[in-house]
Structure prediction request, 1133 residues.
Amino acid sequence: MFEDLKEGIIKEVNDAQSLDELKQIRVATLGKKGSITLITKDVKNKSPEERKVIGKETNELKEYVEIIIEQKRMFLAERKMMQELEDDKIDIFLPGTKLPSGSYHPLTLLLNDVIEFFRSLGYIINEGFEIEEDLYNFERLNMEKDHPARDMQDTFYFDSTLLLRTHTSSNEARALEESKDKGPIRMFSYGKCYRKDEDDATHSHQFMQIGALVVDEDISLSDLKGTLTAWAKHLFGDNTQIRFRPSYFPFTEPSVEVDINCHICGGTGCPICKHSGWIEILGSGVSHPNILTAAGYDADKYQAFAFGAGAERIAMLKYGVDDIRSFYNNNIEFLEQFNKVK
Amino acid sequence: MIVSYNKLNEFVDLNNISPYELADILTNAGIEVDSVHPLAQGSDLVIGFVKKVEKHPNSDSLYVCQVDVKDEILQIVCGAANVKENTYVIVAKPGCEMEYAKVPVIKKVDLGGVESNGMICSLNELGIPEKFQTKEQIDGIEVLDKPYNVGEEALSQLGFDDYIFDLDLTPNRSDLYSIYALAIEVGGLLKTKVKEVNLNVETDKETDFQIEIEDEACLSYGLFEFNDLEVAKVSYQMKNELIALNFKDRFNLVDYANLAMVISGNPIHTFDADKLKSKTITIKKGIETDNFLALDDKYYKIIKDDLLIMCGDEIIGIAGVIGSKSSAVDENTKNLIVESAVFSHVSIRKTSKRLDLFTEASTRFNKIINPYTSEFAIAILEELLNKKCDAVRKVNYPVYKPVEIEVKTSKISRVLGIDIPVETSIQILKDLMFEVEYHDDSLFVKPPSYRKDVTIREDVIEEIIRVYGYDKIATTMPTQKIVYNKLSSKFLLDKYTKDALVGLGLREIITYQLYSKEKLDNFSIEQEYMQLQNPLNKEREYFRDNPIIGMIEAIQYNNSYKHMDLALFEISDVFFQNKPHTFLTIGLSGYYESNLWQKQTKKADFYLLKGIILEWLEKIGFSYGRVLIKPIEKDHPFLHPGKAAYISVNNKDIGIFGQLHPAIIDKFKLKETYIANINLTQLDNFVGRVNKYKPISQFPVVSRDLSLVVPNKVNAEDIVKLIRKGNSKLIKEVDIFDVYYGQELLENHYSLSLTLKISDDKKTLDEETISQVVNTILTSLNTKYKITLRS
Prediction:
């Protein structure tokens, strides 16, 4: 009945290119004076039968037009949104904002890791004093004045009694003295130490030492080896092995230097391990009985082990740093490489 | 300590093990070998005889030589001026490898149109250091002293086939300064035979010389007379033997004394008997002179503490360090007086350190010398001179009385954590020349005379495990009672501060603690830094009382690498008022945050630094209300007086922060820089972060903006504090969003605009209450500070 009208509307809706156009079509068809609305107004003059038929068909037509206009509207709205988003596009390849990126000093990073290890084994943490008395740095450690071993550590003195500690063993001498019950001790010590060395790629007049002292009735060289093996694995991975080499320190007897197998070449030989497959990392041993006795311990009942290592040396091996001065120059190109968790 | 393979082999059977294997064995037994290298380098070198030398047709500096190497006559072009006909030389034929030559492999070459089939070697090309050569040897080829077997391998015939070991001896093993003691050690390790030697001098005849020891720094002293000697040069081979032991040959008397010293470990000194003007030798201290002429032709200043050897009233030696020129042996010496003595290592060390004179003798005397082998040195000399000592006098020569050390076998197991069969322990000790008895579950051990380092049972245990092998030590963990322990508040403050600042985007640095006075003066208020007695240099003479210099140098260093955007901090312990103080130092320069192409940046400034400090304090538990900011004095030495402040927490000054003074910026060539320096030790009531939850209000928050006209002398912080105090329950936030200094305002006034966030935790506020709150604030601002609302 209204086939022509319907065809016309379909064409117009199909041709509509904008939401405005579509709105006009809606007004022109379904509006108060729209072509479909006018048909229903005309119907008064028809017979009831005709009215019924016309009424039904116009309603159908109305519904149909509503649907196609709505479909078209959705289509156009989406197309418009797409266009707007397209217009709003940015260049995603330009750089992001440079945020301030904090970082721990690599020696702190190492220290955190090492302290975590020794805390897990129940060690107390001890920092000691950088400016120390000769008494604790040397005399209590079995190094009387003029002991030849004092030559091994060229020392900075303020006067005849006050010096810059040459190792954190001084913390241990104090801890032994301060122990009230002269019983078991398990301590980890760290801190800045000083030796009168000219600064170069492998020497630094200021350095960080880390070490430990364990005192109990049957502390043995095997306990030392077990502890150091676990620590070396913690630091350098599960395949790490350690080796003891005889050495001499006035405060330990027997004394051993400790090597780890070279994690760079895996033991086959490379410049880092001087083609030996092993890298020296620390000095250690069973504490000399004189040290225990000097602090009031019963050296027949108690035994102890102690070790000390340069934190820089371990950090150099762990992180692959080739010049010890890098730790103190604080070039941010160096520092920013230590922004990882481990 | 330098020792050669051949010399060692003379005293102990090295069983043909290679020098490199020997080095490993020594190192594993605690005698660290720093390096091993051949005395001379060069493969397949032969002896040649120079038959003919002619000038090179096309060169003035080259010679064409015909060299007989037995199977053939080689034509060799040689550039050395000292090449002569009818001499014996060392020849490298084509194919020879020469590490120290200009080309590593010798080839047949054309030199200026003449064919050259090899090279006549110099000592330099063999790798012999110049200090062992004469000028002629350094400038030219090596011309041999006499005929040798032409065509045969050269290095072994000439005594160059040796290896040099550089040992890094530990202070307890000064006995190993004796090659003979080392031989015994090696014998124990290799289980091979050690040569028996004569340790004593047999002569009974007493010399006319008298000895008077007047100072206790001389422990023993002996004089040994050798008469009717003939001075001569040592053989070519012995010359090389000496080189391998780090000595340059002079003539027999001196060379033999040196050999006797390195074999016995006891330094001996030789005097020309005919130059001694008195028959009384006195050893004493207490003489001063500025011009003691020593045998090295140098003058030395002698002070009262130096131990001297006197002949009559003439100084003939500084004990253990160096002898006088006037008494020294020379090429005309006929009669020798040899001194073999033991001096206190403390005294010798002081003198040689003061004179900066470390001779072969003083290096040994710096350690503890074995007093029981003083005669051994002379016995070696007798053998080398092939002549018995003519007369002697000995004072205080000690007789060795071994100490017996008891070591329970159970103690060995307790210390090592493993069990070693007792027979094994006994054998190890016996191989090292210890006397051992075993009964009642104990070893009774007597160390040999030269093992003065072995005095207690732990020393004996070390001897056993060192040879038994540390690789056999087990790996166990200590079994101990667990004891709870707390981390110190210093440790925690340190850690939380680092965590907070790294989280805020700062980088941690660590700087040196020692600086020059001049540098520290820039930043120190009290200038009471501690001075070192023996600094490395002026730059590192004082322990700092203030860490700022380290931060400044770190910024300076980074700027030199064009790193201009810096946000750094350091935590360090500095020293003043006779105790350590922990400081936090922050340094900001350049951009903190940036996106340059968007023109959005955050540059370091006072307020950024203030924000960082307050945020850090908040994180470690000191909230805004407990922090106070105060202006600094106008003549502050290193901070800009208008852009800096003191900061106090809980009414205690903890530090200072602000812009670096332009004068300092200028002096250190920096860009605009902001520094904070905070004494963490002042935060002594620090207990760590305690987080406490407060329920979040369910009721709406209302904002009110206020624009105030404020007298200049009233600061923003006072205003904010007053507002918060007035109605702390309802005022949730006070934010300043504008500050304006304008002409149209009242004179000496500025304008401050604030946003208040007002809310009640229990109900929704009505308009009336809000107005009341705002009015109360305005009234109190007006009453206290004469602040009005801006119209």
About this structure: Chain A touches chain B through 80 residues (CB under 8 Å). Strands of chain A lie at 124-126, 131-133, 162-164, 185-194, 206-216, 242-249, 252-261, 278-287, 303-310. The CA atoms of residues 252 and 288 of chain A lie 4 Å apart. The two ends of chain A are 82 Å apart (CA to CA).
